[in-house]
Write a structure and sequence with these properties.
seven-stranded mixed β-sheet, 5 helices
Length: 199
């Protein structure tokens, strides 16, 4: 289902701004999980944990060096401080146990055929209670689960906006729209400047 939520656009001046945005997204994800738990706590078979029932998929798009891996690392470390987060460029996926369930970090840059994801057991990985962060999602098209939220990063200079990176966060599903709304509120309340934001 497509959402009618608007995009969040802004600029990341440096790595600390990227880390700040990742931390705000982690807070928004935690709020969404807490809200989900409150809505479902009285349903039969639903436990008292705050895990998202069917998981959440975030695509990260952008050219080489645009900051996808750095953003992903910062997001994972927001949930797991001190966790060593290695790039899954050669293994295709790294999994971490986080407070919202498993966090799967996919880097599909070296994927030759989307069917290779089947050999990795992607359907088993993405059953329930997960957060999936996918770099180069177009390489898994046809096999990979659709995104709830898409984060596009690019050099600001490509847009004629000087140094740093520009970002666009686009909700794709209703869940992605709820997440984007929470992120937008957190950005506004944080007092942090991310350039212009259409939220």
């Amino acid at each position: 289902m497509q959402t009618t939520q608007t995009n969040i656009n802004g600029k990341l001046a440096d790595e600390s701004a990227t880390e700040a945005l990742a931390k705000l997204l982690a807070q928004a994800l935690s709020q969404l999980a807490d809200e989900h738990e409150r809505e479902h706590k009285n349903l039969p078979g639903w436990g008292s944990d705050n895990k998202l029932d069917n998981g959440l998929v975030i695509y990260l798009e952008g050219n080489l060096g645009a900051g996808k891996s750095f953003f992903t690392r910062a997001l994972i470390q927001s949930f797991l401080p001190g966790q060593k987060v290695k790039s899954p460029t050669y293994t295709l996926v790294e999994t971490y146990e986080g407070p919202l369930g498993e966090i799967h970090h996919f880097d599909l840059y070296r994927l030759c055929d989307p069917e290779e994801l089947e050999f990795l057991g992607i359907r088993d990985l993405l059953k329930t209670h997960f957060l999936s962060l996918v770099e180069w999602p177009s390489k898994g098209e046809g096999v990979l689960q659709g995104a709830d939220l898409v984060i596009h990063l690019q050099y600001a200079s490509e847009l004629g906006e000087g140094e740093g990176r520009s970002f666009t966060i686009t909700p794709v599903t209703d869940t992605g729209g709820r997440l984007a709304k929470k992120l937008s509120e957190l950005v506004k309340n944080s007092g942090m400047e991310f350039g212009s934001q259409d939220v």
